[in-house]
Amino acid sequence: MRRVDRRFEFHALRCRQCDDNPRPRVVNPGAGEAGHDGVMADALLFDLDRTLVDIQSFTDYGSARREAAALVEGFGDVAVPATDWSADTVAAMSLLVACSGDPRWAQVSAAIERHELSAVPSSAPMPGLHEAWARTADLPRAVVTLVPEVVARAALAWHGVDCAGVVVIGRRADQRPKPAPDGVLAACLALGVAPGRAVMMGDSLWDLEAAGAAGTAFVGVPTRVGSMPSDAIVALDLLAAVDLALRM
Ligand SMILES: [Mg+2]
Questions:
Q1: Tens digit of pLDDT at every position of the chain (248 positions)
Q2: Helix (DSSP H) and strand (DSSP E) numbers for the chain
Q3: How far, in Å, from the CA of 53 to the mean position of ligand 1?
Q4: How much distance in Å is there from the Cα of 186 to the middle of ligand 1?
Q5: Is 121 helix (H, G, I), strand (E, B) or coil?
Q6: Pick from 108, 165, 191, 193: most CB atoms within 10 A?
C-alpha cells in the first residue's frame, strides 16, 4: 500500500453549489486521532440516502412520522445532529433514536419502512453513482444507512447497482442508529477491517458523527454549503469523495 504524508497535501475542494468558487483546504484526516494513519483505505463505507440514492425527497415522512408517533407515547425530544433534512424526516429519525432499545421500536420502524419502500420507484440516483460504484468495485464495501436493509437493497437494485458481496447495515432493532457508531462498527466487523482502516462517506452530520465515534475517517458529500464543520473533509460530489477516499 502507498503511504502519503497528508500534512502537506492540498486539494482544491469545491462545494456543489459554489462551482465557480473553489475553496482550497488542507486535507488532514486526523491521523492519530481517529486511528487512521494515512495509509490507503482497506474498505469503503457509504451512507445511502442522498449519498448514493435520494430516497428522502420522495418519502412521505410526514405520514410516516404520524403513524409511528401514534404507536408510542412518552418519547420526548432527543439530541441529534443538525441536518438539512425536512422537519418530518428529522422527527421520524429522531423518534427511532428516542425509542432505540424499546420493544416498540420494531413497530415504529415498520411503520416508517412502508413509506420508504414505496418511495423506491420514485427515488433518484445521486450524481456520479454508477461511475463511483464502478471505480470502487475492487475494494470491500459496505452501505451503512438509517433505512432498513431491504429498502437500501431495493433502492440500489432499482437503479441498477450491483450489491452482490456488498455488506448492507441497515436500520435494525439490535443496534443504535447513527449518529451512534454501531452501524459503522458492524460494517467493519462484517468486512473484517479495522474501523481505523476504513473510510466512510456521507452527506450529513449523522454520518460524520457515527464515523468519528467509530474511529473511521470521513469524507463528506454535503448537499448544502456550510452544512459540515469547517474542519471536515468535504468533496464536490460522490465521485470526488470516492477519489479522496481512495487516497486515504
Ligand atoms: Mg444521508
A1: 333 333 223 232 333 333 333 332 333 333 333 334 444 789 999 999 999 999 999 999 999 988 888 888 767 677 777 777 888 898 888 888 888 888 889 999 999 999 999 999 999 999 999 999 999 999 999 999 999 999 999 999 999 999 999 999 999 988 988 999 999 999 999 999 999 999 999 999 999 999 999 999 999 999 887 889 999 999 999 999 999 999 88
A2: 8, 9
A3: 9
A4: 18
A5: helix
A6: 108
Q: Of 96, 134, 131, which is closest to residue 112 (Cα–Cα)?
A: 96
Question: Is the CATH number of domain 6-54+124-245 3.40.50.300?
Answer: no
Q: What's the 2 CA to ligand 1 centre distance in angstroms?
A: 30
Q: Which residues contact 56 (CB under 8 A, 6 or more apart)?
A: 49, 50, 85, 86, 89
CA of 57 to the centre of ligand 1 (A): 11
Q: What is the pTM of this model?
A: 0.81
CA 8 – ligand 1 centroid, Å: 30
